[in-house]
Amino acid sequence: MVKGKLLSLNTRGISNFRKRQTIFSWLRKQKPDVVFLQETHSTKRNEVTWKKEWGATLFCSHGANNVRGVAILIRNNFDCTVEESIVDSNGRFIILKAFISGDPTLLVNIYAPNWDNELVIFNRSLLQTIATNNLDEIENIIVGGDFNCPLNPVVDKRGGSLIPRQSVISTIEQLQSELDLHDIWQIKNPTIRSIPGVNQTLWSFQDWTIGLFLILYRTTFIMLT
């Protein structure tokens, strides 16, 4: 049985030193075991510096100075051994095949595209990448990040169009079905409409929505979102 604490956050860019230090400091206070970050705007040139600033294990998929980028951060002394990594060259996803307390676990952090046609292609490609590498056979699977599509807009979204984007939703549901994944937020918070925003010290982040920031799991991992 895999246990731990996971936090997922769209940073909306942390290339700025002051903002990055603010977010890293906030993350440390939450004491997560694993962190999924999206829209980091990292580059290969600053990866070593960011690792030193974080002070623990950090995996990056780079976008550019002002677009895309994802990262997975693992705290020091957490019993997690990474055996294999698949890193997207466009800053859209990181897949880690790991052992957490000896249990095989797949960690997948994504930052999906904005447009529906690109989202459909991305979700299908992600599932194919997992299946092609026989990673769908791993007992514990956690897929998290920014999916850029609410599964149920009426419940999961504030403002804007409430018309379901069915072509995209179908590909997310296929991902859930084929990997036997479940939406941890909805299971643990069935009556709460949306995830609260983080506005205290993390600059001007807007409110999150459940459908944009999903944590899908096939495990008993304890999570904080």
Shape: globular
Q: In the CATH hierarchy, what is the superfamily?
A: Endonuclease/exonuclease/phosphatase
Distance, first to last CA: 20 Å
- Poorly predicted ranges (pLDDT <50, ≥5 residues)? 195-214, 219-225
Number of helices, counting only DSSP H or I runs of 4 residues or more: 6
Q: For the report, how would you describe the main beta sheet?
A: 6 strands, mixed
Radius of gyration: 16 Å
What number of domains? 1
CATH C-level: Alpha Beta
Describe the protein's architecture and organization.
- The protein is of the alpha+beta class.
- A hairpin with a 5-residue loop joins β5 and β6 (93-100).
- 28% of the residues lie in helices and 27% in strands.
- The protein has a single domain (6-218), classed as 4-Layer Sandwich (Deoxyribonuclease I, Chain A).
- A 6-stranded mixed beta sheet has the order 5-6-7-8-10-9. The chain has a 4-stranded mixed beta sheet with strand order 1-2-4-3, with helices on one face.
- Mean pLDDT is 81; it is low at 195-214 and 219-225.
- The longest helix has 17 residues, at 116-132.
- The chain has 6 helices and 10 strands.
Relevant terms:
225 residues; alpha+beta; Deoxyribonuclease I, Chain A; six-stranded mixed beta sheet; four-stranded mixed beta sheet; 6 helices; 28% helix; 27% strand; disordered C terminus
